Amino acid sequence: MKVLFLCTANSCRSILSEAVFNAMAPAGFKAFSAGSFPSGQVHPLSLKTLERAGITTDGLYSKSNDAHQTLAPDVVITVCDKAAGEACPVFFGPATKAHWGLADPSELDGSSEQLDAAFDQTVAIIRTRVRAFLALPFKQLSPEQLKTELTVIGCLGD
């Protein structure tokens, strides 16, 4: 199963989601990420947070949605926070689509300890959601049921 995490800049939330998912996923599951307006670089605190969590950062880079035009993902999950008023990209044909809004920790002002805590909290929320995702009985769910389950998972950790 291919899961694509989409966001705006593809430097923080979608990158964190891709890395956490791939660290937790069993064989046959793989995550990717992209952005509608990629920043061109992964936020340094995203990399630092993943390293602190023992998650590899190899191969992570900020890329456009166009980088995955031929991917044909099974699931597309946007992670832009609706409250921030961001325009989340949603496409990729027949893929099951869901929204798992995450506040952008890279937008916060604060001490290095506060920023580390915000990034760590984001990773904790992503882990909770990925754990619930991976526990789904995929073969028993219709596309509509899967979409409903993904919507519920998108509220976990809020």
Q: What this model shows, in words?
A:
- With 158 residues, this protein is an alpha/beta fold.
- 35% of the residues lie in helices and 13% in strands.
- The protein has a 4-stranded parallel beta sheet with strand order 2-1-3-4.
Topology:
Elements: E1 2-7, H1 13-24, E2 30-35, H2 44-52, E3 75-78, E4 96-99, H3 112-134, H4 143-153
Parallel strand pairs: 1-2, 1-3, 3-4
Helix pairs in contact: 1-3, 2-3
What is the overall pLDDT average? 91
Into which percentage range does the β-strand content fall? 5-15%
Q: Biggest sheet: strands, sense, closure?
A: 4 strands, parallel
Task: Provide the helix percentage.
Answer: 25-40%
Roughly how many Å apart are the termini?
26 Å
If helices are DSSP runs of H or I spanning 4 or more residues, what is the number of helices? 4
Low-confidence stretches: none
Choose one word for the global shape: globular
Rg for CA atoms: 15 Å
What is the SS-derived class?
alpha/beta
The total count of strands amounts to: 4
Strand order of the largest sheet: 2-1-3-4
How do the SSEs run, as a string of H and E?
EHEHEEHH
